[in-house]
């Protein structure tokens, strides 16, 4: 089991900082009016921001919790299932899907405060020989 | 409405970029990751000029485009000081026509290399799946 751990609540400041760091200034992530004009109820978080949170949870699990030494991430896939809005409180966790002497595959999910799955992910690690 | 299917295999121009410790630090801070000189896994999301080139060339309306999936294959870590070269290919296009609506599922594949000494080292590949929905039928 990969315990579900929370990430900071999604705020406008977090989205602005991520926009500057990633170069994704799509106004649907930053401007309430623009988001509503395209039919959204409000500003939505960048899918890739959630993806970054999930990648970090995967690395944290492998390196700290499972204590697998010398494993590196070789493949990471995220699927965006539901939008994430301002104020959403997310948590990320999952399961070890497969394991061998030299590999480990994690299946992770991001859930919001309504227990809806916003994002799913697969992280494949390989032992550095 | 333009079908991208005939353009499978088309590559964007090659783009160059410099990985600085400042950019990595900003990204780490924005995503709640410990600061390091090695780029975190989703840092490759910064390099989307190739995708943008295709979107502009084929006049894809961003409001009709939804990013549904992203995957990365990693060969070598990317570090502060690396000079990268990347380009994006239209890897796959699947089409679905329902009455009045044309849907395209497009995979853009970006290949990233780093120039290290006199070698071009493969850093990895990223694949972005987008769904483009437009009213009408394709031509």
Structure in words:
The complex is a heterodimer of chains A (129) and B (139). With 129 residues, chain A is an alpha+beta fold. Helices cover 28% and strands 34% of the residues of chain A. A five-stranded antiparallel β-sheet of chain A has the order 1-3-4-5-2, with helices on one face. The longest helix of chain A has 19 residues. The mean pLDDT of chain A is 95. With 139 residues, chain B is mainly beta. Chain B starts with 14 loop residues before the first strand and ends with a strand. At the A-B interface, α1, α3 and β2 of A face α1 and β2 of B.
Shape assignment of chain A: elongated
Structural class of chain A: alpha+beta
Major sheet: arrangement of strands of chain B? 1-3-4-5-2
State the order of secondary-structure elements of chain A, H for helix, E for strand. EHHHEEEE
Biggest sheet descriptor of chain B:
5 strands, antiparallel
Question: What is the residue-averaged pLDDT of chain A?
Answer: 95
Topology, element by element:
The complex is a heterodimer of chains A (129) and B (139).
Chain A: E1 2-6, H1 12-22, H2 32-37, H3 47-65, E2 71-80, E3 91-99, E4 103-111, E5 117-127
Antiparallel strand pairs in A: 1-3, 2-5, 3-4, 4-5
Chain B: E1 15-18, H1 21-30, H2 49-57, E2 65-74, E3 83-98, E4 101-116, E5 119-135
Antiparallel strand pairs in B: 1-3, 2-5, 3-4, 4-5
Quick structural gist:
The complex is a heterodimer of chains A (129) and B (139). By secondary structure, chain A is α+β, with helices and mostly antiparallel strands.
What distinguishing features does this structure have?
heterodimer; A: 129 residues; alpha+beta; 5-stranded antiparallel β-sheet; 5 strands; B: 139 residues; mainly beta; 45% strand
